[in-house]
Amino acid sequence: MALDFLSSLFKKKPKEEAPPQEEPVLEEELEENVENREENEQLTQIMERINEIENDIPRIKISIDTIKKQMQELRDDIDRLDKTIKDVMMLYEVISQEINPFKDQTAQENPLANEINELKKELEDLKLEIAQIKNDIKVLSGYGVDLDSIIYEVLAEV
User: Fold this and answer.
1) Cα–Cα distance measured from residue 20 to residue 117, given in angstroms and rounded to the nearest whole number
2) Greatest mean pLDDT range, 35-39, 82-86, 106-110, 132-136
3) DSSP string for 60-124
4) Which portions of the chain have biased composition (kind: Acidic residues) (predicted)?
5) Distance (Å, rounded) from C-alpha 42 to C-alpha 35?
6) Cβ-based neighbour number of residue 137 at 10 Å
7) Across the chain, what does the average pLDDT equal?
């Protein structure tokens, strides 16, 4: 019966025939049924996709945790390598300073190195002189000498 109805809908009707009153109602019902079926199919597809995604979430979480763990292990390895490289570089510097055959030549040829050595000597001389002044002040303060007046006189000369 439904097949007859559907076939009658798709048959070309002569223009002379008047359409029955019941057909528009049936057409609307068919359209609603088709729309409802399409909506149900879409909802079913959406629900299936949601279920797939829900099933994938635990696997994705495990993958993320694994990647985080591997990244931390790589960071630790890089830190260890960095420390090892620093240790090797320090060892190289120590050895190259001790064994470098060009050490004396570079110091003589480099004017900045000469100036640095001269400044080091002057600094050592100043340290010795300050140590002597401290000792002299201690000795003078033991004899009851007025240190304030001596300091003011020296500052006034400078």
Assistant:
1) 118
2) 82-86
3) HHHHHHHHHHHHHHHHHHHHHHHHHHHHHHHHHHHHHHHH-TTHHHHHHH-HHHHHHHHHHHHHH
4) 24-33
5) 10
6) 14
7) 80
> How far apart are the C-alpha atoms of 138 and 158, rounded to whole Å?
22
d(CA 31, CA 54): 34
Residues with Cβ < 8 Å from 150, sequence gap 6 or more? 140
SS3 146: coil
Buried b / exposed e along 34-44 (16+ C-beta atoms within 10 A): eeeeeeeeeee
Residues 6+ apart with CB under 8 A from 103: 97
Say if pTM beats, i.e. exceeds, 0.70.
no
Return the closest-CA partner of residue 1 out of 21, 26, 19. 26
